[in-house]
Amino acid sequence: MKSSKPQMVKQNNLAYLTQLVKNNAPLSKRELADLSKLSVVTINKLIPELLEKKMIYPYSNEVVTGGRHAVSYRFNEQKNTFLVIKIVENRNELSFFFYLCDLVGKIIKEEELPIADLSWEDFVEVIGEWKRDYPEINSIVLGIPGVEMNGIVKVVDHPMLQGKSVQEELTEKFDCQVTLENDVNAAVLGYAMREPKEKIISGIYYPVEFPPGGGVSIYQKILKGRNNFVGEVSVLPLEVDWSKENILKVDLTKHLLDMMEVFISLYDPHEVVVYGTDERINEEVIHEVGKKIVTKFPLIELPTIHLSRYFKEDYLAGLIQIGLEETNRLLLNEFK
Predict the structure, then answer these.
(1) 81-181+314-333: CATH superfamily
(2) pTM of this prediction?
(3) What b/e sequence results for 183-218 when a residue is b if at least 16 CB atoms lie within 10 Å of its CB, and e otherwise?
(4) pLDDT for the residue numbered 115
(5) Could you tell me the CA-to-CA distances from 327 to 67, 75, 189 in Å, in that order?
(6) Parallel, antiparallel or unpaired: strands 69-75 and 221-222
(7) Digit-coded pLDDT (tens) for 296-334
(8) Cβ contacts of residue 44 below 8 Å, gap of 6+?
(9) Are 177 and 330 in contact (CB under 8 A)?
(10) Measuring CA to CA, which residue among 181, 190, 194, 205 is closest to residue 315?
(11) Angle between helices 166-174 and 120-133 (to 10 degrees)
(12) 55-103 confidence digits (pLDDT tens)
């Protein structure tokens, strides 16, 4: 049944006031009225409902002119939390990192879990422990070095997840929103969130013992494609042998130059971020590619190429951003 127009107005006002407190707290009723352009009478009617829903809480009761008390309010950052699970390559092995985050993206707790010999059942049990300890978790974001297609994890660097309906199984088991994202996609998003919103960012990651992966952020949104396959650069027809025996022998100067041509031709980005360790790629490679790409595209304004050693940090930042967007959507749904 659809909401009546007055009810929709009330829902929109509640959601709007929540966002105002979230972004500008602490705020008194008078300050909320001034910012929202709603009357103080309307604010007085809506505040009790926000308190009942635990969206906000009283922050202070300061005495103001005439001996009156003015209560100000803050956003309840821990009304709900979300769990970020990040799979990373660490010294040529894969590990799970768990991060409990509040509704503004602050990390409340974190733990590392080595992945050696970890079964799917063990993994689910660990998530269950987090859910039991923090029942307010209403969203899980899982970063994977692979691709999810039609709900099934494919092209992944660890057999535990291969062929699993991860999203469906975790959603059913824990009754919360579950989102999967490719590791490089998340890293490029994390990088893009520090840049102006109107920028297009392409990225490529050269891990130590795995084939490279790419990602594209357009206006701070991940470009995923029909099958979530955007960025699977190792399957491009560039005649490169990414086998484990040959991966360290690949000429990354030539490969990066080829990838720059692909990125520029398809996405025309403002920046290209290149992730890798010192043993894989250095500033000399970036400089050489930068010189050569000018001769390939002499008539256009070229993207800057940025070499970054902060893949893990950007990866986490991107996953947290995805979690924030999802939990914000769930939060606003409470007013419907």
Answers:
(1) ATPase, nucleotide binding domain (3.30.420.40)
(2) 0.91
(3) bbbbbbbbbbbeeeeebbbbbbbbbeebbbbbbbbe
(4) 67
(5) 40, 14, 17
(6) unpaired
(7) 999 999 999 999 999 999 999 999 999 999 999 998 888
(8) 29
(9) yes
(10) 190
(11) 40
(12) 999 987 664 555 566 789 999 999 999 999 998 876 667 788 999 999 9
Which pLDDT score, from 0 to 100, does residue 1 have? 38
Reply yes or no: is the peptide bond before residue 26 cis, omega within 30 of 0.
yes
- Max Cα–Cα distance, the chain, nearest Å: 80
Tokens of 106: 């602050």
Instruction: Map tokens 């409470």 to a residue.
Output: 334
* Distances 262 to 204, 214, 216, 296 between C-alpha atoms, Å: 12, 11, 12, 12
Domain ranges of the chain: 5-75, 81-181+314-333, 186-312
Q: First CA to last CA across the chain, in angstroms?
A: 11
Distance CA 259, CA 215 (A): 12
Structure tokens at 235: 């399957």
Mean pLDDT confidence for 229-233:
91
Give the type of residue at 55: M
5-75 fold: Arc Repressor Mutant, subunit A (1.10.10)
What tokens appear for 228 in the block? 């979530």
- Provide the CB-side half-sphere exposure for 192 (13 A, CA): 30
Structure tokens belonging to residue 322: 């995805």
Those residues with Cβ within 8 angstroms of residue 223's Cβ, 6 or more apart along the chain or in another chain: 215, 216, 217, 230, 267
SS3 322: helix
Q: Read off the amino acid at residue 206.
A: Y
Domain spanning 186-312: CATH superfamily? ATPase, nucleotide binding domain (3.30.420.40)
Same fold across 81-181+314-333 and 186-312:
yes
